[in-house]
Amino acid sequence: MEGTEGWVDISVNGTPSKPLPERFVVAPATLWFDRFMNHFIKVGGLSIIVAVSLIFFFILLQILPLFRGARVQEYGSLPVPPGDYVLMGTDEWSELPFLLDTAGSLHFVDTVEPDGPHDRGHFVRAPAFLEEVEAAVVRYNEYQARLAYGTVDGRFAIVDVKYRPTFPDRGGREVLVNLEETPLLSIGREGVALDMIAYGDSGARKLAAAVQQVDGRYELHVVSLAQRRTLLGPGELRVDQAYDLTDYLDGEPAHVVIPSDADALLIAMQDGRVRYLHYDGRVFTERQVFQPFADLANSRIASMDFLLGDVSIVMTSVSGENRMYSIYRDPDKDMRIWGHTKTFASMDHAAAFYSAGMRNKSFLIGSGRFASLRYATTKQIRWEDELPFDIRLALLGPRYDRLLFLDAEDTLHFYDLRDPHPQAGWKTYFAKIQYEGQAEASYAWQSTGGRDDFERKLSLVPLIIGTLKGTFYAMFFALPIALMAALYTSQFLKPEIKRFVKPTMEIMASLPSVVLGFLAALWLAPIVSNAVPSVILAVVGVTVSAYTFGYVWGHLPPHIRLRLKPGYEFIVFVPVMCLAAYACWTLGPVMERTFFLVTDPSTGLQVADFRLWFPTVTGLGFEQRNAFVVGFVMGFAVIPIIFTISEDALSNVPDAFRSGSLALGASRWQTAVNIVLPTASAGIFSAIMIGLGRAVGETMIVVMATGNTPVTELNPFTGMRTLSANIAVELPEAPYLGTLYRTLFLGAFVLFLMTFIVNTVAEILRQHLREKYRAVE
Amino acid sequence: MTANRDTPTRAAAPNDVQQRRVAVSRSAAATLEGVNAQHIQVKDYSFFYGPTQVLFDLTMDFPERHVTALIGPSGCGKSTLLRNINRMNDLIDGISHQGDIQIDGSSIYDPYLEVISLRKRIGMVFQKSNPFPKSIYENIVYSLRVAGRNKKSELDETVETSLKAAALWDEVKDRLQESAFSLSGGQMQRLCIARAIANRPEILLMDEPCSALDPIATGKIEDLIHDLKKEYTIIIVTHNMQQAARVSDKTAFLYMGQLIEYDETEKIFMKPSEAQTEAYVSGRFG
Fold this sequence. Notes:
The structure holds 2 protein chains of 2 kinds.
Chain A: E1 11-12, E2 15-16, H1 28-63, E3 71-79, E4 85-89, E5 98-101, E6 106-109, E7 122-125, E8 135-141, E9 146-151, E10 155-166, E11 174-181, E12 185-186, E13 194-201, E14 206-214, E15 217-230, E16 233-244, E17 253-257, E18 264-269, E19 274-279, E20 284-290, E21 301-306, E22 312-317, E23 322-330, E24 335-344, E25 353-356, E26 362-367, E27 370-375, E28 380-386, E29 391-396, E30 402-407, E31 411-418, H2 426-430, E32 445-446, E33 457-458, H3 461-491, H4 495-509, H5 513-530, H6 532-554, H7 558-561, H8 570-595, E34 597-599, E35 606-608, H9 610-618, H10 627-651, H11 655-663, H12 668-679, H13 681-697, H14 700-705, H15 723-730, H16 739-772
Antiparallel strand pairs in A: 1-2, 3-31, 4-5, 5-6, 6-7, 8-9, 9-10, 10-11, 10-12, 13-14, 14-15, 15-16, 17-18, 18-19, 19-20, 21-22, 22-23, 23-24, 25-26, 26-27, 27-28, 29-30, 30-31, 32-33, 34-35
Helix pairs in contact in A: 1-16, 3-10, 3-13, 4-10, 5-10, 6-8, 10-13, 11-12, 13-16, 15-16
Chain B: H1 7-10, H2 13-29, E1 40-49, E2 52-62, E3 67-71, H3 78-85, E4 95-103, E5 106-107, H4 115-121, E6 122-125, H5 136-146, H6 152-165, H7 169-172, H8 185-197, E7 203-207, H9 215-228, E8 233-237, H10 241-247, E9 250-255, E10 258-264, H11 265-270, H12 275-281
Parallel strand pairs in B: 3-8, 3-9, 6-7, 7-8
Antiparallel strand pairs in B: 1-2, 1-4, 4-5, 9-10
Helix pairs in contact in B: 2-9, 5-6, 5-8, 6-8, 8-9
């Protein structure tokens, strides 16, 4: 191949042939260039495949972490002075945890510098009032880092553990702590020790509850606290109202809890019943009595604690069943009551420890050596294990990055928790989930909310439905128009008119979709919503006028009909169509006044308004920016594509087929439908699929003209949110590599899969059609 | 389409040639007695593509149940004339005509005559076989289906008679539901003939029906034409002088859109009156 003169030397039996005349010699440059281009094209083709695969793998790489469980690893342990510790708390970074002993003193453990020179390695702090009176009971609210002390003499005080990070000059971070305590306030019977205490503080409203045992009988006392604000700052905290709720105790109480909103009191009895008392600021009313473990042999509630947000309670039975109750508005009773929302995998024993996450709806629960990290919303076990020691106390780090365990030998174990996407999972994205506050499971997408403890709702189902809805309505408009237009242009219209019709349609395809979206949202949507009956009438009217015109024209005497050459009928039809459209537009309000009447409930007058009539009659919503408008405008984005490609396909049908059909006495319409259309079906199919792809992926029009409500209904008069619009809308809000960020990539992946499946099926069908209707060569 | 489908028929080639010779002598003996000699009348007919005139004042009659061949060099207007008889040129833009063509005395340009019904009366076979991308069966019954005749028994009968008339029945009777594209080139052209006569027209127009076929397939078509003329008035355009001589009873020689000579085939080929005709048929120009 490498002949010096660029000539391929053909030799027979090794003997060189005689040199060839120059005119037969191929220039080396020609060969070189040919070979180069050959490889160049190969490289180009391969690069495209590689690039597409890389994009695919990149997306995959972004979404895979969503489906990984939590990774937990011990990274240290620290002996603490022996003591009778009852609860554990920590700062945000889990650097300075404290252990609370039965006397009420807080033993702080410096985990950063356990052997440090100053006295911080291990130090004890206690509220000042403990010098005066002994503590009988303490309750800790992790989220607010707030301790509620009940004393042996029937008083209580609130102690805030104030962690304060400082950033000293030598670098790093140093966490300082001090205790802020309220004065002792009396509750219930004076001089009687508190058995239980509960405290809820929403800022505006403060509620404390205490259980006391008086002569073998349990009493329940609640006080509301008031703090008057003065010019010199917050005033003195004092008891505002005292309530004796002993009447609600018909047995021995097991647990008493108050949510942080301080608007309720939940009392669990030893027999497993829970009483829900609602507090409206003045009085307590019993709203509900429920028994979470009524179906079990022993229905006693072994543990009962709030999940982040204090609208769900995680409970375990004595046998280790783990259930969650949440408060939500019952549509039948029209008030917020508690209902069983989740059942978790049961454990072998009742929970001995519980710690709710402060960043999400996770909780750490277990007993003995067994610890389990669960995610409430998805009921998923993020991690669970038998630890090599008996767990006395456990704590889930506030940043959801640490697990702290205190074992029976007074050693504090630190575990590193890596679980960046606790909420993620197949269930979150594709299954119905009952979120807190919802009366039933649903597919919901709501990625941002107003509160810190707001939980993201990340179901992709509304987005997939939205995508399909948008595509459906777009194709609903575009397909008939585009295909009929293509058939008309290629088979019936005169070529000289086609010469400018086709480029005009192609210019339409180049209209930026942002312009279409803008027009749809600000111009078309208001017009359509004001005149829905007119629009519906026009759609029907124009179609009917076309059929009627065709029928009448076909029955006109030939001497009238033949004044127009075949192919120029549109000259007569266009005015007829415009007239029909105008008539329908003016008749719309008449129809509205006749059929779409609603009675105004306030005045009793009849109002003719489709926008009010539709929701009243169907029970479905009506929005100005709706699928109808989007379908119409997106149809305009899709029509030119489908039109151009299918027109090409139809025009490329060999003339021999048309002539053959016409020569056999078929009409132009019969020829078009029976011969041309099937023969071009493969090409038309491609056109539809490309149009479909455009509609599925279309973003700007949908973002601007749909209202972006992630609904799961196919009602044409409400909006939707598509996968692509969702990515466009949410990506600026999504923290890099966060759950939402990766979820958006998952949305992209689903979109990719959808188009991939549609295209693959389409290609197989197309090949089949092409084989079937292949023209003879 | 593929060559090996023709293999079985190739063995019969010598016999074909013999038959064809017989056909020539028979057609030479044909007369015009007892038939309507003016089945199709072309009267002072001129035809224009836009400003270009392609046919000049043609006047000629085509006799019933005879084969008339139109010969002439490329671009002489013979195909145009043929395609005007069933108004297939209507599809082309900017055409116009003067004069008239009449079938059985009525003009094909009568505004009260539907062009569709005209075409039902006139079958046409094209230069390149153009079966539809449908089954053999559906190809044949197409003209019935578009006329709204869907009765199964009628369709079946039509398929059989048409295919038999086109001498294709024995070859395809067991695979009527297969695609028409599975046939060989010659079979496809016979299928197109079968399709053209399925609606039993009066007239059959053939536009160089054998130009894309091998000699054996051509032989079969020529035999077929000979059989078909018992029922149909056939006009055939051909470039093949031997073919014109073999199959036709009358031959018209057109040159530059003018009718130079129109007479019995034997006369045109043996002793033409015009020098141009003689030059053309003897292969001296064209």
